[in-house]
Amino acid sequence: MRRIDLSGAQLQNATLERAVITDASLDEADFTDANLRRTDFGASRLPRARFNGANLQGARFVSSSLPEVDFTGANLREGRLDSADLTAARFVNAEVDDGSFYNARLRGADFTDATASGARFARANMEGARLQGADLSDANLEQVNLEDADLRGANLKGANLDGAALSGADFTGANLERADLRNASIRGTVFDEARLGNATWVDRSHCRPRSVGECG
Hints:
This protein is low in regular secondary structure and 216 residues long.
């Protein structure tokens, strides 16, 4: 299905597994609790669409327009959202483990309590994003823009933050053990009570195993 217009469609609980819905118009469509496993939404327009609780494992949204879309509680494991516009999107309690957000626009997105272990966010714009309590362990955040982002209590153990823009970000109480912070910009960044054991610091020095709040 290419170039179809399903704007405002009510597709709750629908089964569209492995469907190809590319270059489509799906403004404000409702896919709550739908089975969309491996479905391809590439280059489609989905502003304010709802995917609450949907199964989107392995789904593709490459180069799609998804501002203010709601993925609350959705399964997006192994999903492909490279170069997608996800401005102000909601991923609260969503599962995006091993997903790919390369070069995505995620400014103001909400990942509160989401799981994104092993996810790839390299070069994404996540300025002002909310990631409180999110699991970003082993995630690739290389050269990502996280300026003014809220990462309080987030798990970034083993994450790659090489060259990331972190100015004004809040890592209070976050777990950054074994994280790679080489070449990151940290002007005004808050690390209060953050665990930095064995992390690689911005100047390439290695933090001591029990470093908390600062790289000792």
